[in-house]
């Protein structure tokens, strides 16, 4: 909490100083922009009102100067498709709010987002500043809506953009056929498609559409992406047909077997969210899972975002290590950075984050060296230009049990 | 259901005879075959091999720069500088790193294989709180593709454990990570058996939900104590039989009980305990339990709270096999600290281990150890690679009772060795060549040495 206090103090000084917005310059940084601009070997990021005001290869002046001393500055990383702030302890039912059996397309778990969850400070240790939370399961195929949250841990302002994508689960199931789930998914789109066509004929604007109808309409207009969790290549090909038929903004998540159809995914401009570590045939839908998938999809021209397999909520801080592994198996460094920043932002229409560019929120991470390397230390994290703590409950426990004391540990706070 | 009728009959008859007929001719001594499923492992053909100019982490705490490793007859022959040999094949490993083969003390490969479909759920005999009678080796599917991906990550030995639903889950087995089509052909020769025990939430949840004991943590403890009391009687009965028989008395052997054979093996010091146990207070009670019944508490696995009792674990000579960062999936996994392994390790006579319990992280135990080393070093520790490597080599070997055979690069040890393309604690590091008993079992640049499971053949 030391770092946080310092920032509060700075803010207090600032407010008494007058109306002029304070500017902060991070100078002498190796800036990895995650934009077309690529890497600026030594430059300045100028911050005002929580936003990036300038990105320059020169040294700019400001009210407050942070000397990066040649270290690496990246956009804050963005996790996705997990339940950060929606789950505290996996096996404690009352601490889980991310799934609703009969939730359906309108289920919005962001109403339950808890910015004080211990998972949030822990995720910041991995350089994460934002996250896209999403329902995991339900009776489906529609399981609900995802939302973008920032990881400031603050009440009131943490849910940045709610209901930004529709989440659908397809593929092999324990009961019944995947064909029925896929048909159900298509029928929903078709039903709304027909309804819209009829409405535009009759110019009937009296009947208020239901929430479900509004969501389906947004999807059919391509305004809201539909993220489909699916693993088998043939299922993805069926979904590409659906995309072409209805013009939806289709995103595939999971995608373990994407390798054999990488060209089709690229051609259809379908972004893919996947785990770089998935390389075992978990089931008959993922026989071609491989460590090289992320890199090969990138080379084929597919927009790739990385996510964490398994318990992605508690483990999302590992995103940078996963990116490193993706690089080790063929992804470009720039591509891997984009896969945990700008590509995630792009997929979920997060317009104000995911890269170091003028006008974006100053969500930044400063690293002692290569951010994907295990030996690298995270030195600073900023959200909206404000430095946030990376200390979590875990550190408090460590400090308690490492402190020199003659008293029971319970007295060490 | 081990108490089958014929032996019960024999016992009844013998009771009738024994009182009046101790002078009757003595029957043949009954003894229990402790190794009915013996290893048939044969090292593959090994070359004479001289690895030159590498950075060698010996697994004994030493780092040798620009060093050579000579492998003859499947064994480490020499380690040092400027070694030479007339006929050995030379591998120039300049710029590369060499470590002992990586050992995972906690794996379910083969028993929970890929694909993880219903028909493959063979790791957890969730039918009774005490299933000490099952042996997980009887579940191992050698064609699990996970063995091959683990080998590509430098895994040369691994202990397969049954799951954690039961107080006593059954016997584990230690394997050499070689491709084979029988379990026996993978079985690590002369490795002692392990017995899986489980504390805490799992057993009480599984059986509590069925309204049978245990449904609480106190129920767990009662279950262990009853079982050890029973095993003590069983051991006594056999020892009495053996002693009486030695005296020439016409005595009948006690009734065979497969479950109690295993527990007795622990009491006799032949089978090592591997205890899934997360919480500080529970690990402490398990040590008390072992003292009550006179066995060693062995290795604690998943000890998320091991850092709270690091002294106690070291004093008891117990290893702690831990994750660097898994947490939060249940209450007993809530108090994780990233420095857990480092804190346990810092105590004198400790035995800290990084384990996987995962078919994916087993492929990167080097990275898992790296996470611990670097995060701990950020917080006041000063741990070097040559020390951290022991968490996945020598300490792991000790936990499995095979440290006289593997786990370090020392003359005389089995030549289970990995050549890495760079510092293995880097996220970009890859195992290039993996040797087991001096035989090359994996080569990243040669498809001939990349084994493929029967299951994956012809799949598209």
UniProtKB/TrEMBL annotation, chain A:
Query: Which segments constitute the Amidohydrolase-related domain?
Result: 256-388
Specify the signal sequence span.
Answer: 1-21
* UniProt KW keywords: Hydrolase, Signal
Going by the entry's taxonomy, the superkingdom of the source organism is recorded as Bacteria
Statement: the UniProt record of this protein carries the keyword Protein biosynthesis: no
Which GO MF term does the entry hold, naming one?
A: hydrolase activity, acting on carbon-nitrogen (but not peptide) bonds
Q: Which InterPro entries match?
A: Amidohydro-rel, Metal-dep_hydrolase_composite, Metal_Hydrolase, Metallo-dep_Hydrolase
Mind telling me which Pfam families this protein's record contains?
A: Amidohydro_1
Under what name is this protein listed? Amidohydrolase
UniProtKB/TrEMBL annotation, chain B:
What are the residue boundaries of the Amidohydrolase-related domain, all occurrences included?
A: 367-438
What are its cofactors?
Zn(2+)
Q: Which GO terms describe its molecular function?
A: hydrolase activity, acting on carbon-nitrogen (but not peptide) bonds, in cyclic amides
PANTHER family from the UniProt entry: COLLAPSIN RESPONSE MEDIATOR PROTEIN, HYDRANTOINASE/DIHYDROPYRIMIDINASE FAMILY MEMBER
Q: Which InterPro entries match?
A: Amidohydro-rel, Metal-dep_hydrolase_composite, Metal_Hydrolase, Metallo-dep_Hydrolases_sf
Provenance organism: Pseudoalteromonas piratica
Q: Name one Pfam family in it.
A: Amidohydro_1
List, alphabetically, the SUPFAM superfamilies matched. Composite domain of metallo-dependent hydrolases, Metallo-dependent hydrolases
**Can you name a GO cellular component term?**
cytosol
Under CDD domains, the record lists: Met_dep_hydrolase_C (cd01309)
Q: What is this protein called?
A: Amidohydrolase
Sorted keywords for this record are: Hydrolase
């Amino acid at each position: 909490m030391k770092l946080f206090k310092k920032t509060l103090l700075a803010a207090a000084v600032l407010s008494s100083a007058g109306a002029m917005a304070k500017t902060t310059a991070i100078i002498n940084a190796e800036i990895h922009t995650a934009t077309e601009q690529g890497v600026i070997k030594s430059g300045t990021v100028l911050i005002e009102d929580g936003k990036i005001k300038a990105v320059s290869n020169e040294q700019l002046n400001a009210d407050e100067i942070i000397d990066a001393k040649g270290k690496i500055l990246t956009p804050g990383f963005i996790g996705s498709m997990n339940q950060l702030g929606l789950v505290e302890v996996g096996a404690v039912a009352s601490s889980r709010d991310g799934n609703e059996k009969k939730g359906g397309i309108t289920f919005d778990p962001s109403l339950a987002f808890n910015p004080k969850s211990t998972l949030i400070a822990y995720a910041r240790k991995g350089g994460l500043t934002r996250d896209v939370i999403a329902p995991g399961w339900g009776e489906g195929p529609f399981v609900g809506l995802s939302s973008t949250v920032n990881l400031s841990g603050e009440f009131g302002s943490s849910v940045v953009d709610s209901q930004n994508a529709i989440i659908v689960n397809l593929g092999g199931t324990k009961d019944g056929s995947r064909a029925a789930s896929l048909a159900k998914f298509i029928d929903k789109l078709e039903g709304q498609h027909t309804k819209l066509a009829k409405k535009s004929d009759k110019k009937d604007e009296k009947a208020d559409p239901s929430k479900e109808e509004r969501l389906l309409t947004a999807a059919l207009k391509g305004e809201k992406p539909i993220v489909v969790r699916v693993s088998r290549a043939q299922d993805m090909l069926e979904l590409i047909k659906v995309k072409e038929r209805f013009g939806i903004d289709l995103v595939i998540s999971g995608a373990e077997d994407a390798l054999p159809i990488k060209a089709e995914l690229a051609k259809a401009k379908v972004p893919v969210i996947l785990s770089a570590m998935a390389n075992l045939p978990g089931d008959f839908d993922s026989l071609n899972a491989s460590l090289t998938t992320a890199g090969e999809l990138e080379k084929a021209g597919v927009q790739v975002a990385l996510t964490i397999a398994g318990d992605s909520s508690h483990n999302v801080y590992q995103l940078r290590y996963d990116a490193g592994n993706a690089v080790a198996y063929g992804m470009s460094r720039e591509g891997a950075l984009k896969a945990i920043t700008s590509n995630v932002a792009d997929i979920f229409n997060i317009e104000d984050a995911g890269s170091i560019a003028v006008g974006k929120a100053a969500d930044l991470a400063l690293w002692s060296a290569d951010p994907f390397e295990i030996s690298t230390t995270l030195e600073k994290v900023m959200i909206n230009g404000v430095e946030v703590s990376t200390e979590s409950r875990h550190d408090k426990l460590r400090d308690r049990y490492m402190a020199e004391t003659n008293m029971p540990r319970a007295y060490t706070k | 259901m081990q108490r089958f009728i014929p032996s019960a009959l024999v016992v009844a008859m013998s009771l009738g005879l024994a009182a009046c007929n101790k002078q009757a001719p003595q029957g043949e001594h009954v003894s229990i075959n402790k190794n009915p499923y013996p290893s048939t492992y044969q090292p593959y053909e090994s070359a004479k091999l001289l690895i030159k100019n590498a950075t060698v982490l010996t697994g004994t705490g030493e780092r040798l720069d620009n060093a050579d490793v000579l492998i003859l007859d499947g064994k480490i022959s020499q380690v040092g500088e400027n070694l030479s040999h007339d006929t050995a094949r030379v591998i120039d490993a300049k710029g590369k790193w060499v470590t002992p083969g990586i050992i995972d003390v906690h794996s379910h490969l083969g028993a929970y294989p890929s694909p993880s479909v219903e028909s493959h759920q063979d790791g957890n005999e969730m039918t009774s709180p005490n299933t000490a009678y099952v042996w997980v080796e009887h579940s191992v599917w050698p064609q699990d593709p996970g063995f091959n991906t683990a080998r590509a990550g430098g895994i040369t030995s691994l202990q397969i454990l049954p799951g954690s639903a039961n107080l006593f889950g059954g016997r584990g087995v230690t394997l050499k990570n070689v491709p084979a089509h029988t379990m026996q052909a993978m079985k690590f020769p002369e490795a002692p058996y392990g017995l899986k025990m489980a504390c805490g939430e799992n057993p009480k949840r599984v059986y509590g939900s069925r309204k049978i004991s245990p449904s609480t943590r106190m129920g767990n403890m009662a279950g262990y104590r009853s079982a050890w009391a029973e095993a003590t009687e069983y051991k006594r009965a056999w020892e009495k039989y053996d002693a009486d028989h030695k005296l020439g008395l016409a005595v009948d052997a006690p009734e065979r009980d497969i479950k109690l054979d295993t527990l007795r093996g622990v009491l006799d010091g032949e089978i090592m305990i591997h205890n899934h146990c997360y919480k500080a207070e529970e690990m402490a009670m398990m040590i008390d339990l072992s003292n009550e019944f006179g066995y060693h508490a062995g290795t604690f696995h998943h000890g998320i709270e091991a850092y709270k009792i690091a002294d106690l674990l070291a004093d008891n000579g117990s290893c702690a096999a831990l994750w660097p960062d898994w947490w939060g999936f249940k209450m007993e996994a809530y108090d994780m600290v990233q420095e857990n392994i480092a804190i346990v390790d810092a105590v004198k006579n400790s035995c800290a281990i990084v384990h996987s319990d995962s078919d994916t992280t087993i492929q990167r135990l080097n990275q898992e150890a790296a996470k611990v080393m670097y995060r701990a070093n950020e917080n006041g520790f000063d741990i070097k690679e040559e020390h951290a490597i022991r968490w996945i080599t020598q300490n792991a070997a000790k936990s499995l009772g095979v440290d006289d055979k593997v786990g370090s690069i020392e003359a005389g040890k089995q030549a289970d060795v990995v050549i890495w393309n760079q510092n293995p604690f880097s996220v970009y590091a890859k195992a290039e060549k993996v040797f087991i008993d001096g035989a090359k079992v994996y080569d990243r640049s040669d498809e001939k040495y990349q084994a493929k499971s029967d299951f994956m053949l012809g799949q598209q």
